Amino acid sequence: MLDKLNDVESTGLDALQAVQDEAALEAWRVAHLGRSSGLMQIFSQFGELSKEEKPVVGKRANEVKKALEVAFGAKAEQMRQAALKRSLEQEQLDVTLPGRRLPLGRLHPDTQIQRELFRVFGEMGFQVYRSREVESDEYNFQLLNFPVGHPARDMQDTYFIEAEGRGDNPIVLRTHTSPGQIHAMREYSARDPQDPPSVRIILPGMCYRYEQTDARHETQFDQLEGLAVGPGITFSNLKGTLADFARRMFGQDTRTRFRASFFPFTEPSAEFDIECFLCGGKGCAVCGGGWLEIGGSGMVHPVVLKNGGYDPARFTGFAFGFGIQRIAMLKYGITDIRYFWENDLQFLEQF
Ligand code: PHE
Fold first, then answer.
1. Parallel/antiparallel/unpaired status of strands 220-230 and 316-323
2. Does 268 sit behind a cis peptide bond, omega within 30 degrees of 0 on the bond before it?
3. How far apart are CA 186 and CA 266, in angstroms?
C-alpha cells in the first residue's frame, strides 16, 4: 500500500509538470485528486487494513494528498501569473501616446464681433444698455412715431403674438433695437425728470422679422443701436461718431458717407455707408460700387424725445442702428447670413 502511495505521488507530480493550460489542469485535478483517482481508491480501501497498518498508511496517504494539493495550488498560481504576464506584454498600454483632445468650445463669431463693437464704442464713451426682445406694438412702433396704420411699418414685416384683447397694442418680437431708445430714455429721465441726465448708450441684441430668407436676409439678426441725447448734440456729432467708429473698426483710412433717407423716429435721417476696405473703394464683388451699406441713422425725432421724457426744446440727440451680422460678414468675408444660426460646426470652428 505504501508503495502504491509513493507511485501515486510521483506519477501525479510528474503529470503536473506537463500541464500547460487551464483545461489540462482541471483534467489533472479530476485524475489525481478526484473521486475515482488512485489516491481516493486507496482511501476507500482503508477498511481492509490491519490495526498496525492503518496509522502508517493513513499518515502517508494524507501526506501524499497534501503534497498533490499544494503542488496543484502552486501550479494554478504559476499559470495565473504567466497569463497575467502574457496579457501585460501583449495588450500593452502605451502611456506615451498623446491623450485624446477634449473638444474646446469657443465664442460664436457674432459674440466676437459684438465684443469688438463694445470695445470700440466703449472707448468712445458709450455704455451697453440691454433691452427686451419681446415688445409691445406701442414701444416697437407707436412711441417711435409709427402710428397705427403708418406705411413705414411695411419696411419691417413683423411677428405678432396672439394675445386677446390688446387692441392696437399687440405683443411683437421686436423688429429693431430702436424700442430700447424709449426704455432707456424713460429710465434715465425718471432719475431726475426736471433735469434729466445725458444719454450715451449702445443697445445690442436680437431682432426678428417675417422675412423671405436669402443670403442677406434672415428672420433673426442682431442689431447694434446707438443713442446719444443731451443739450446741444448736433448732426456733426453723429457724423463724427460714425466716422470715428469706422476708423477704429476697419482702419485709419476708412471713409464714411451719408445718404438722405427716412425713418419715422429720426429727422433728418440718413443711411450711412463705409468705404469698402476690401477693395479700398475701387469697387469689387462684395461692395459693387466701392461703398458698403451699414445701417440707418439720424437726429432723434422731437416726438421720440418727448416720449422718452426729454424736452425737445432743451435736448437733441442722434441715433443709429446697423446689423451686426452684416459687419461680421464684411470683416470675415462670409457670403451667406444664414450660416450664423445653422449651428454647423464646420462654419463655427473657423472663428
Ligand atoms: N431701426 C432702424 C432699422 O432697423 C435703423 C435705425 C436706427 C435708423 C436708429 C435710424 C436710427 O431699420
1. antiparallel
2. yes
3. 18
Whether residue 8 has pLDDT greater than 90? no
The pLDDT tens digits for 120-143 are: 999 999 999 999 999 999 999 999
The one-letter code for the residue type at 23 is A
Q: How confident is the model at residue 237 (pLDDT cuts 50, 70, 90)?
A: very high
pTM: 0.72
Q: Give 332 Cα–ligand 1 centroid separation in angstroms.
A: 24
Q: Which three cell numbers stand for residue 35?
A: 473521486
Tell whether ligand 1 has an atom less than 6 A from the beta carbon of residue 320. Answer: yes
Is residue 181 lining ligand 1, measured as CB closer than 6 Å? no
The SS3 assignment for 69 reads helix
Cβ 158 under 6 angstroms from ligand 1: no
Helix, strand counts (H, E) of the chain: 11, 10
The three cell numbers locating residue 104: 474646446
Cβ of 319 less than 6 Å from ligand 1: yes
286 pLDDT exceeds 80?
no
When the pLDDT of each residue in the chain is averaged and rounded to a whole number, the result is 91
Which of 295, 241, 207 has its CA nearest to residue 126?
241
Distance 201 CA to ligand 1 centre (A): 15
| Measured distance CA(293)–CA(165) in Å, rounded | 40
Cell of 38: 488512485
CA 16 to chain centre: 64
